Amino acid sequence: MNTLDAIRTRRSYRGRFLPTPVPHEHLMAIMEAGLQAPSGCNKQTTSLIAVDDPEALARLHAVIDPPVGETAPAMICVLTRPIIAYRDRTFFVQDYAAAIQNMLLAIADLGYASCWYEGHITDADRIGDQMARILGVPEEYQLVCFLPVGVPAEEAKTPPKQPLESRCCFNRFSL
């Protein structure tokens, strides 16, 4: 699959997954794609943990409420560290967002499905903190997202998109 095909066909998948394991080589390729993303001032604030051990997955899913992605045979947890990059600015949100997008494209390219779960675990109930403790993540890191990874059991729904012409213009705003 080429990059533009992966962009066009990638979908957020919230359905059930087949129990087919995701090989470590595929998880490594997905994480490598994520860590090849641009990083503000090259601070490389994003780190990743792939989880495919059924017991570890069960412990993580026990704290994810309401449950999501619980049938995926693997998940990738996204960690970040807010580091000052330029003057008093940090770019850690942009860093991990770019990494997540790269991973979602790699996941699609490899024939798997996923969904970006962030708000679900960073709300006031701080599920991400509970997940981080389960995984032994040091306190200077924040677990901000997880991506379930697996073979989808059904076809992902394609949401309607607004026409390109209603959102793009050339040389000046003309929408």
Label this structure with key terms:
globular, 5 strands, 175 residues, three-stranded antiparallel sheet, alpha+beta, 15% strand
CATH superfamily: NADH Oxidase
The parts where pLDDT drops under 50 for at least 5 residues are: none
Share of helical residues? 25-40%
> What composes the largest sheet?
3 strands, antiparallel
What's the end-to-end separation, in Å?
33 Å
Which structural class best describes the helix and strand composition?
Answer: alpha+beta
CATH fold category name: NADH Oxidase
Indicate the mean pLDDT: 95
State the domain count: 1
Radius of gyration over alpha carbons?
17 Å
Give your account of this protein's structure:
It is a single chain. With 175 residues, the protein is α+β, with helices and mostly antiparallel strands. It has a single domain (3-166), classed as NADH Oxidase (3-Layer(aba) Sandwich). The protein has 6 helices and 5 strands. It has helices at 3-9, 24-35, 54-63, 92-109, 119-122, 127-134; strands spanning 46-51, 74-80, 84-86, 89-90, 142-149. A 3-stranded antiparallel sheet has the order 1-2-5, with helices on both faces. The chain has a two-stranded antiparallel ribbon with strand order 3-4. A hairpin with a 2-residue loop joins β3 (84-86) and β4 (89-90). α1 (3-9) packs across α4 (92-109) and α2 runs antiparallel to α4 (92-109). The protein is globular and about 55 Å long. The model has no long low-confidence stretch (mean pLDDT 95).
